[in-house]
Amino acid sequence: MISIIIPAYESGQTIAATLDSVRSQTFRDYEVLITDDGSSDGTLDRQYAREHPEMRISTASIPIPGWRRPAMTPWRARPGSTFLP
Question: What proportion of the chain, given as a percentage, has pLDDT over 70?
Fold first, then answer.
């Protein structure tokens, strides 16, 4: 399994298209990890996950400015994974 990390900030208008792109791939053994650093536009609305239960989607909201730290922090310690920044 691979983990697809999607850093997002104020991406409420585009996150569904991003997830549609992931969903359209032929490779299926993945999980999607969305990190957000304090959006106020519904970026982490779980509606997409409810509509597509076949996708493994996890979310984390971390109010730290800048995308790199929020994108990487929650997932670094995942057991059994290799992290490629």
Answer: 73
